[in-house]
Specification:
α5 runs antiparallel to α6. The chain has ten helices and 21 strands. By secondary structure, the chain is α+β, with helices and mostly antiparallel strands. The two termini are about 20 Å apart.
């Protein structure tokens, strides 16, 4: 069974007013369009176009016994369009989420409270693949020696010396981030940001340019300095990063297709007016420096590849543009067109056409999924 599904863009302030509209080939509305959700998440479930008038969160349980589909998806697929940087954030592991959720439930913290950290008991690993020519992100903590070299180029103001001292000690990155988010005065943050905004450091031109941009958007926000400690990544179209539990990250600019575990657990670490629980954040972050967490696809059938981070919740198939392709599905799937016009045909012979921004729900019995028509499609499905 192949059924069209759709949703409307969410108007978060950081959204781009043009990227999603341009992908879909329509006039922009003039409002920011940040994300389109293709899934059954209760925050914005997709509409199922089968004449039932149901959204996907109601359709799946009703069809579970008859169609052999799960009552709930293990993943959420999105179009994400960043016109301004998202907050720096980290997601918990399954164990951390279960403990945190139970603790806040027992304490009676309302689930919609601004200070609530855990909205559910699940983890939220995620993959994003660039759809724009470039997609800029911050992901993970940079090699410590390179970070020290960058901070050395910021001069000798008192707050810069304080940051340098934190980075020189034991557990340097935990010490520095804990101080920036929880101990530094506003004047000290401003002093470091001013120093970075006027500095020159060979090999760090893009990082310092980002500092100046963030300074204008988030004056005196400690996240500006946290960003100086992170890997700045510029993906080209078709490249991806995988963000597991514990990895600090922030999407800065561009259009991408994103898939994540079905969770809403986010702890923020700057570039936001929202609540920051510094102690809880420090308990979740993986402070080991590492290279940017790039995820390369593997070939998976004719004209197809798959971004598979090796977790049970999800994998992201990719039917390439330019000809016929075939992809083995791992369970219930959602296909999203991102370029051209593509005819998708399931094992039953049933077919559906998707264009950029259009999506279809595909039941497990339709594997393998064939594509034709020259368009490009991403396919969300359960992982291995």
């Amino acid at each position: 069974m192949l059924i069209a599904i759709s949703n409307t863009p969410r108007d978060y302030a950081w959204g781009s007013p043009t990227l999603i509209a341009d992908l879909e080939g329509r006039e922009p509305t003039g409002a920011p369009e940040a994300e389109v959700w293709f899934g059954d998440h209760p925050g914005s479930p997709a509409e199922v176009h089968d004449g039932s008038g149901r959204t996907l969160d109601a359709w799946l349980p009703a069809a579970a016994s008859e169609r052999g589909v799960p009552g709930k998806l293990p993943y959420l697929l999105k179009l994400l369009a960043a016109g301004a940087p998202l907050s720096i954030q980290v997601h918990p592991s399954k164990e951390q989420a279960a403990r945190g959720f139970a603790r806040e439930e027992e304490a009676g913290v309302p689930r919609d409270a601004g200070e609530r950290n855990y909205k559910d008991d699940n983890h939220k690993p995620e993959v994003i693949v660039a759809l724009s020519d470039t997609f800029t992100a911050l992901a993970g903590l940079r090699d410590l020696e390179r970070t020290r070299s960058l901070v050395d180029a910021l001069g000798d103001a008192p707050a810069v010396r304080a940051l340098r001292a934190h980075l020189a000690g034991d557990d340097a990155l935990r010490s520095a981030i804990g101080w920036l988010l929880g101990g530094a005065e506003r004047a000290e943050i401003e002093e470091i940001v001013d120093a970075a905004a006027s500095a020159e450091a060979p090999g760090f031109a893009a990082e310092l340019a980002l500092t100046r941009s963030l300074h204008s958007a988030y004056p005196a926000d400690p996240g500006i300095v946290v960003a100086l400690l992170m890997n700045l990544v510029e993906l080209r179209r078709g490249e991806a990063i995988f963000v597991p539990a514990g990895v600090l990250h922030a999407y800065v600019a561009g259009l991408g297709v994103e898939i994540m575990a079905a969770s809403d657990n986010v702890l923020r670490g700057g570039l936001t007016p929202k609540h920051i629980d510094v102690e809880e954040l420090l308990g979740l972050v993986d402070f080991r420096p590492a290279e940017p967490p790039l995820l390369r696809p593997t070939a998976s059938g004719k004209g197809a590849e798959i971004f598979a981070p090796g977790i049970a919740d999800f994998a992201l198939g990719h039917l390439e543009a330019g000809g016929a392709g075939s992809l083995e599905l791992r369970g219930i799937a959602i296909a999203l067109g991102v370029a051209g016009e593509t005819v998708l045909t399931g094992a039953s012979g049933e077919n559906i056409t998707v264009r950029p921004g259009e999506a279809a729900l595909i039941t497990p019995d339709e594997s393998p999924l064939a594509s034709d028509g020259g368009g490009e499609v991403f396919v969300a499905m359960p992982g291995a």
